[in-house]
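ok, trying the design again with the full structure, not the truncated one.
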């Protein structure tokens, strides 16, 4: 995928309207069979530009780690929240993603007065006490959202590496819980582990799990 650098145009326009702390919010891990869904909220310092911030899906793992360090050390505030598989199974993945984003925003200090959320209207975060705006393809267009996508992605990848260390049978260190052929073969052989989402069942696995 071609990397497209995100811009601060929207954040700057909102600051000119009087908003002080403009947060970008994004979540990762929505389509995985295992592991948590993770959301991050990031308020960038308008006076501290961080170059090369882009959608986390277009950045190499090494560069994501470097950007993570720069973002978390230079941001006005940032927070990251995980919703675990058992909660995902109880409330469904869409609600889990929204809940993770809500918790990440509310955990921020200082709390933002405007929230920019990656996605369309379906991703409007419930029960926030401040203004919010949905931005379609926001992780590719908006620097604050791109920064949040990087923080969430690095956090989740580190979690999946930890889970691999506890149980290496599934290869979480390689596919991070996504439904690759390697992962599906391991599930067919070993069944679901305690970190798999039991509400996510590929049809070919119904008779084996």
């Amino acid at each position: 995928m071609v990397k497209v650098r995100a811009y601060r145009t929207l954040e700057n326009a909102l600051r000119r309207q009087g908003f002080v702390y403009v947060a970008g919010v994004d979540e990762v891990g929505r389509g995985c069979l295992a592991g948590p869904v993770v959301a991050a909220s990031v308020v960038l310092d308008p006076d501290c530009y961080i170059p090369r911030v882009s959608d986390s899906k277009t950045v190499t793992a090494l560069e994501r780690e470097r950007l993570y360090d720069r973002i978390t050390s230079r941001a006005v505030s940032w927070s990251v929240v995980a919703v675990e598989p058992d909660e995902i199974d109880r409330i469904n993945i869409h609600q889990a993603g929204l809940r993770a984003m809500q918790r990440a925003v509310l955990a921020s200090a200082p709390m933002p007065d405007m929230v920019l959320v990656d996605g369309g209207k379906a991703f409007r975060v419930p029960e926030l006490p401040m203004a919010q705006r949905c931005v379609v393809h926001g992780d590719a267009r908006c620097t604050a959202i791109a920064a949040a996508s990087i923080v969430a992605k690095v956090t989740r990848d580190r979690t999946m590496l930890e889970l691999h260390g506890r149980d290496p049978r599934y290869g979480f260190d390689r596919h991070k819980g996504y439904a690759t052929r390697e992962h599906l073969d391991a599930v067919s052989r070993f069944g679901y582990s305690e970190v798999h989402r039991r509400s996510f069942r590929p049809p070919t696995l119904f008779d084996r799990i």
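Keeping the full-length input from now on. DSSP finds eight helices and five strands in the chain.
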